[in-house]
Amino acid sequence: MSLYLGLDGGGTKTTIALLNSEGEELGRGTGGSGNIATNSDEVLLQSVQVAFRVACHSAGLSPQSVQLNAVCAGVAGYSVTARRTPFLHIMEQALPASSTHLCPDYEIAWWGATQGDPGIVVIAGTGAVAYAKDAKGETAKADGLGYLLGDRGSGFNLGLYALRHTLTQLETGKQDRVSQTVLEYTKTRISTELMHWLYSDFSPARVASLAPKIGLLAEEEDIIARSLVVEMARRLRHTVREVRHRLWLPRDIPVYPLGGLWELGSFFRSEFQEPQWLGEGETNIEPEDLAGGRFLLAQPRHDAAYGAGLCAKRLAETEVS
Q1: 311, containing H or E segment
Q2: Which domains does the chain have, with CATH numbers?
């Protein structure tokens, strides 16, 4: 039986999916963190081994007797080029495969969401990136540059905007629901305490943890929260337009939303899909400056671990041909 293994290595867990020659998922398992930039070789090896054993057992297979046709892994930390070769060696040590491949996490997310059909994935969590592929196999990527240089419309971006707004409110002696929510969440009262909260234990994920709070206020029709959420939606729209334009994709190309920020609520999704809200009073905003049209949002067909398995299958078939 032909077997293909997909690996999704994230900051908190490693997920492995086993597929057969028909693309059917036979089993899956999870292990520890799979970020190749932040974890040691020992931790990564253990994460892969644990996930592999669990996946084999869930498929009714013995890890000792399995022979894989191909492995494809998409991992966080892929941009750290010096860590790629060591992780390839780890996979070759832990996974009995004829061929092993490593790629960015957004690529396997695309394979999972689209099953290989033309489309765009827009991943918005702590960071943000858009990735597209057309019918000819041409690809385009926009953003994914990290919180200092990019990640427009990300959870970090939204949290940062909320912090800046709160500092402005404190400086002017005013209070609104957004600033009150931020102060309550951070357990602070004055600007120096808020700055200490930010800088003393800084991480992009910590800033991004404010995003769901702002999203909830936007769902409750708070004007300030909605203005912040609309700004994020427009930034993500701009990123999607970039990859669509580079590949000259049609306007009805499916756009697959992935990542935790899409759980902010229906207002965020609708403003990304087709901007309508122009604010009220002091929050009046200009209509979108670039004609982007209505995006065709589609439900992702599978997750990234399955996508990595499908990618492994396609790569193995290409090698044979």
Answers
A1: helix 304-320
A2: 4-115+302-320 (3.30.420.40), 155-297 (3.30.420.40)
Predicted confidence at residue 1, as pLDDT, reads 79
Strands 296-297 and 14-19: unpaired
Phi, psi for residue 184 in degrees, rounded to 5: -65, -40
What is the C-alpha separation between 290 and 292, in angstroms, rounded?
Answer: 6
Structure tokens at 107: 């690529």
pLDDT computed for residue 258 by the predictor: 95
Q: Which is it for strands 25-31 and 119-124: parallel, antiparallel or unpaired? A: unpaired
pLDDT mean over 30-56? 94
SS3 content of the chain, % helix, strand, coil (to 5): 45, 15, 35
CA gyration radius for the chain? 21
DSSP string, 92-135: HHHS-BS-EEEEEHHHHHHHHHHTTSSEEEEEESSSEEEEEE-T
- The pLDDT tens digits for 242-264 are 999 999 999 999 999 999 999 99
pTM for the model stands at 0.89
**Measured distance CA(304)–CA(106) in Å, rounded:** 8
How high is the pLDDT of residue 38?
87
Q: Does the pLDDT at position 284 exceed 80? A: no
Indicate whether 290 pLDDT > 70: no
Burial class (CB in 10 A: 0-12, 13-18, 19+), 60: exposed
* Token pair of 161 as six digits: 């905007």
216 C-beta neighbours (distance < 10 Å), count: 14
